[in-house]
Amino acid sequence: MNHSISKIPEPINEPIKSYKPNSEEVKEVFEAYDRLNEKIVNIPIRINEKQIYTEQTKTISPPHDHQHIIGKYAIASSEIVQKAIEGCLEAKEQWSVLPWEHRAAVFMKAATLISGPYRAKINAATMLGQSKNLFQAEIDSACELIDFFNFNAYFLEQIYKNQPKSSSGVWNTLEYRPLEGFVYAITPFNFTAIAGNLPAAAVLMGNVCVWKPSDSQVYSANVIMEILEEAGLPKGVINMVTGDAELITNQILSHPEFSGLHFTGSTHVFKNLWAKIGERIFQYKSYPRIVGETGGKDYVWVHNSASVDEVVAALIRGAFEYQGQKCSAASRAYLPKSQWEGIKKQLEIEIATIRIGSPRDQSNFMNAVIHQKAFNKLKDTIERVKESDDATILIGGTYDDTTGYFISPTVILAKSPDFITMREELFGPVLTIYIYDDSQWRESLEWVKSASEYALTGAIFAKDRVLINEISAILSDSAGNFYINDKPTGAVVGQQPFGGGRASGTNDKAGSMYNLLRWVSPRTVKENFNPPSDYRYPFLG
Ligand code: NAD
What we know:
This protein is α/β, with parallel strands linked by helices and 541 residues long. It contains 16 helices and 23 strands. The protein folds into two domains: 291 residues, Aldehyde Dehydrogenase, Chain A, domain 1, CATH 3.40.605; 187 residues, Aldehyde Dehydrogenase, Chain A, domain 2.
């Protein structure tokens, strides 16, 4: 029996590898990429001890090479979903009583595996399955996932350490119990790290979880499961189920032991899930926790005191990295008239240098958008803008889906601040700019605040501190992650806890202890060392 009081090592963020062309580290990832690219992986549903391969499957192709098949994955039936729920409830009996150090150790070991022997594989899987270039894969599937696992283990200890005061003769304790029942994690396509973190955060706190990854991320999700098993996660603690999202979800949300939803994805899907949970509220044993991080229409607002070079770099990285498919991607910008000519010239010069294509070619800054549906939506929007009198396409506006779903980096100039692409999330490499008269800077902030239903990320560029303070206050509710003189993307675990308000989510801040607190239901225990033996109080005389 171990009676020591364990201490989780204070985590440091995983250093990002530089991947200089022709280096050993590049060779290692491309070798893994080529190996995976030559095979067809058969991805099972994982329920406790069993790997289930179904007759019905769906194929997986790289978005940048959509005729080439690299995998297929199983499609769950209702019976399989039922087994996934029952299986994780069975696994809970042992997992929820396991000393917390052992739970933390699973994820710290998983982080070590990703940092070392699995780094090339998980990066290569993300490059292939989600069309991310080497650098984008590295900051997501390697560094961010490692950080989620290490920092969450550290936050777990901080939470457990947080105990109430006790008066003389009394001992008060908070027991951080997991939720009763099971948690359901639904994850998006765009970040391997988010996909891994959503089930893991709940499970780390002693819960069990059914996990439904996105159809467009199953390929790297399978690698996450492989790593967690290798790290010693007992079978059944996370059951990964793939297939029809509605079928799986309707069944899970109808189970009386459903106790929490950990969701990241689009606003529309999340609102529907919330409504379904509401409809079933009388069926559940407890009130389910609902945590959802959703869409964004993220802004860059520029004052005329800002540096043109800094603004242009932020706009290009913010809007076009990972093809604008980050929830935090800059997709609307408000620029002062006096700086416009300088910014425009610079944008045209810089964007002309951007190469687009397969992530296998290291010189490509951009790759393909995720699937045909996304490609079609972006293509249709571009075509509508071309026909509109209210906006013009300044840069890009071309597309080609012959081999992969490629959309060129596109800059739209809107004539009014409420043009449709200034308001609605597109989730692609499309940036819309509105030029405001310098004297209207205060008014332009009102447009920033009210143009969209979202409040995820936003960035301002300005020099004067009094001005920065004033603008920050005006824009207080317009973003959950607010950047001063920086691009609105690239939040780092442990440094910028992530999440937004309004239609962007419940703002439970992934990568922080606030998120982990949603997955516990504390029990307060008061022990009295000197219980009264007479009911009368002294005041009675
Ligand atoms: P999506 O909403 O299409 O899918 C997300 C998940 O929901 C997937 O697993 C999908 O299969 C599932 N889903 C879809 N329809 C469903 C239904 N009817 N019932 C149950 N589940 C269903 O989103 P996506 O395309 O994967 O990701 C992009 C979206 O996610 C964007 O809106 C983006 O802004 C958002 N996002 C937000 C954050 C954040 O932290 N705020 C992070 C990443 C992505």
